[in-house]
Amino acid sequence: MLRWLAIFVVALTIMTPALVWGPGATDSGIYNFIWTRQFGEAMASGQFYPRWLPDSFEGLGSPTFYFYPPFAFWVSGALDALGFPTLQAINGAAALLLLGSGASMYA
Predict the structure, then answer these.
(1) Considering the domain boundaries, does residue 24 fall inside one?
(2) CB 39 within 8 A of CB 103
(3) Looking at the domain assignment, is residue 90 inside a domain?
(4) Within a domain: residue 66?
(5) For the chain, how many structural domains are there in total?
(6) What is the CA radius of gyration of the chain?
(7) pTM of the model
(8) What is the largest CA-CA distance in the chain?
(9) For residue range 29-71, what is the model confidence (pLDDT) as tens digits?
(10) At 48, is the secondary structure helix, strand, or coil?
(11) Distance of alpha carbon 28 from alpha carbon 17, whole angstroms
């Protein structure tokens, strides 16, 4: 039990800057935000695997998830669909996936 708590504390410590100040500047940060928001909206409307993002490219749409793997966006999109603000959904997904990574590494 103590080891699982240690994994949780390490994951939370690593994610603390992003949870406090928001996600850092990355090359794909704007896409992560736009795709998470649209994925979450689609999930909230009942689409489990949205492939078309209608608000991309000035409203012309994009077949983004025909080409990119959606796993991380299922996690962040689900948090967005549950009502978390998009930046918090991205950070929450990163924290959950980091915790899952640590747990699987331990196992």
Answers:
(1) no
(2) no
(3) yes
(4) yes
(5) 1
(6) 15
(7) 0.86
(8) 51
(9) 888 899 999 999 999 999 989 999 999 898 999 999 988 889 9
(10) coil
(11) 19
Quote the CA–CA distance of 62 and 100 in Å, as a whole number. Answer: 30
Residues 6+ apart with CB under 8 A from 57: none
3-state secondary structure at position 46? coil
Q: Which among 19, 16, 22, 61 is positioned nearest to 38, based on CA atoms? A: 61
pLDDT digits (tens, 9 = 90+) for 13-29: 999 998 888 777 888 88
- Copy the structure tokens of residue 28: 């794909």
The whole-angstrom separation of Cα 104 and Cα 98 is: 10
- What distance in Å separates the CA atoms of residue 41 and residue 34, rounded to the nearest whole number? 11
Structure tokens belonging to residue 34? 């736009």
Residue 76, in any domain of the structure: yes
